[in-house]
């Protein structure tokens, strides 16, 4: 049953898998929100999913991935307008297993301060660690968290970059377990590349991260684009799996923020307002911290 899940999580859309990993006639069993879900594609190409007790699960296929909602969808799947632009290239990076709350993964994605120290000579350099002041807001009309006017010096901002640049960033949290980054495109500074991180929360402290990039890049091979993003995320995984607690604390002053952590503060406040407990320290009594492998 899914009734014990809080509505903000139960009625939200969550990634299940990449579209490319589900061939016609194929079915696979995945763990989502501590439930076993079977997802299948029939011979006609249509995707469906169900819980193992036979209960049907709402599904959507979009952005190179399959999404599911275990309850009644509270809203349509978030829109990414750039997917309608024909000159963009989509590369999906597959799943990376991370022993941490999916909320921790979103928070790490929002953090620019770690660039020079975790992604040295790729997304930052130790000689330029400053995070200039940026703007943060909870957009009530769409129920999303946005960070705008973000800037950071990067020696290699993308797979196609040949030199450093001051990158402009926009961060968008479209759901508790879905976050996107719009950043300066080296090939066309008037437009943004889009990088997304879609997280399947298997257990409160175990997640599968699906990254995608939607870029204006005619020079790089798909392998180079995917390898660049996987390199970045595997560096993050080392940090994420060593954070304690693995679950995200929402209590005030549980962890001390700095000015660079404004997006994290807003994200945690938004989660608390929505009543999100899955993957948080506050929800530990309800779900427990998973120790087994799904």
Feature tags:
about 290 residues; alpha+beta; N-terminal domain of TfIIb; Naphthalene 1,2-dioxygenase Alpha Subunit, Chain A, domain 1; 2 domains; six-stranded antiparallel sheet; 6 helices; about 20% helix; disordered C terminus
List the helices and strands and how they pair.
Blueprint: H1 7-10, E1 14-18, E2 27-32, E3 35-41, E4 47-51, E5 56-62, E6 65-69, E7 89-98, H2 102-110, H3 115-118, E8 135-139, E9 144-154, E10 165-175, E11 178-185, E12 188-203, E13 206-215, H4 222-240, H5 262-274, H6 284-287
Antiparallel strand pairs: 1-6, 2-3, 3-4, 4-5, 5-6, 7-13, 8-9, 9-10, 10-11, 11-12, 12-13
Domain Vanillate O-demethylase oxygenase-like C-terminal catalytic: 99-273
Organism: Salinarimonas ramus
Pfam family, one: VanA_C
Describe the protein's architecture and organization:
- The protein has 294 residues and is α+β, with helices and mostly antiparallel strands.
- It folds into 2 domains: 7-69, N-terminal domain of TfIIb, CATH 2.20.25; 81-287, Naphthalene 1,2-dioxygenase Alpha Subunit, Chain A, domain 1 (Alpha-Beta Complex).
- Helices cover 18% and strands 36% of the residues.
- It contains 6 helices and 13 strands.
- It has helices at residues 7-10, 102-110, 115-118, 222-240, 262-274, 284-287, and strands at 14-18, 27-32, 35-41, 47-51, 56-62, 65-69, 89-98, 135-139, 144-154, 165-175, 178-185, 188-203, 206-215.
- The strands form 2 sheets. The chain has a 7-stranded antiparallel beta sheet with strand order 7-13-12-11-10-9-8. The chain has a 6-stranded antiparallel beta sheet with strand order 1-6-5-4-3-2, with no helix packed on it.
- It is globular, with a radius of gyration of 19 Å.
- Mean pLDDT is 85; it is low at 286-294.
């Amino acid at each position: 049953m899914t009734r014990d899940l809080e509505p903000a999580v139960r009625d939200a859309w969550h990634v299940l898998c990449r579209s490319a990993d589900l061939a016609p006639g194929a079915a696979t069993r995945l763990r989502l929100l501590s439930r076993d879900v079977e997802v299948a594609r029939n011979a006609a190409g249509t995707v469906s999913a169900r819980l193992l007790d036979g209960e049907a699960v709402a599904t959507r296929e979009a952005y190179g991935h399959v999404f599911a909602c275990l309850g009644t969808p509270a809203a349509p799947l978030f829109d990414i307008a750039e997917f309608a632009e024909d000159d963009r290239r989509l590369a999906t990076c597959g799943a990376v297993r991370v022993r941490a709350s999916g909320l921790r993964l979103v928070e790490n994605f929002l953090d620019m301060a770690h660039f020079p120290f975790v992604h040295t000579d790729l997304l930052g350099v130790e000689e330029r660690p400053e995070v200039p002041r940026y703007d943060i807001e909870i957009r009530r009309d769409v129920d999303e968290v946005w960070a705008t006017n973000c800037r950071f010096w990067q020696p290699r901002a993308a797979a196609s970059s040949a030199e450093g640049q001051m990158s402009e960033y926009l961060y968008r949290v479209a759901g508790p377990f879905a976050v996107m980054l719009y950043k300066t495109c080296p090939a066309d500074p008037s437009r943004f590349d889009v990088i997304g991180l879609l997280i399947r929360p298997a257990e409160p402290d175990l997640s599968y991260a699906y990254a995608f990039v939607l870029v204006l890049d005619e020079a790089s091979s798909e392998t180079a684009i995917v390898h660049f993003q996987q390199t970045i995320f595997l560096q993050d995984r080392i940090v994420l799996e060593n954070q304690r607690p693995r679950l995200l604390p929402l209590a005030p002053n549980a962890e001390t923020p700095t000015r660079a952590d404004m997006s994290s503060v807003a994200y945690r406040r938004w989660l608390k307002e929505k009543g999100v407990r899955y993957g948080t320290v506050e929800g530990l009594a309800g779900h427990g911290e998973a120790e087994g492998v799904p």
